[in-house]
Known about the structure:
With 155 residues, this protein is of the alpha+beta class. 37% of the residues lie in helices and 10% in strands.
Amino acid sequence: MYPDHTPHAPAQRAVEVHHPTPYPPAAVPVAAPVVPVQPNAVPAVASIVLPDGRVVTGYAINPARPAPITAKPAVSRTAVNVALGGVGFLAVCGGLILLTSFIAALTAFITQLITLAAVIFGGWIAVQIFSASRHQGGTTVNIRKAVIKRNKFYS
């Protein structure tokens, strides 16, 4: 941040003051004599002493004031709070309606899945019952002639 060749802190450096160089007076034609005129008002010169002892002298400049802004009607805090509360209440109501709709749709979906499972399982059972009576495939054991010893069938 500071130059490398500076051996001391910035507050101890020598301050170099630049004085403005005035422009040379404009060349006035010889035919028109110059008449000195006293100005109507002499501007005020202000001098300020800085903390380090330097004096700054200059003309005071009046700050430019912006055009006045038209006053807006004030809105009471109560009105703002009521409006925000109404918006929040509507948001909560909308969310509850959506939640209720979602729960109803989920319930209908689960009911349809249960019904589909019952139809498929019932159809499988019906196929098992009706297919066994038509043709006698598989192993048939005549229980009347079978001999049961220690939970095993011997025919």
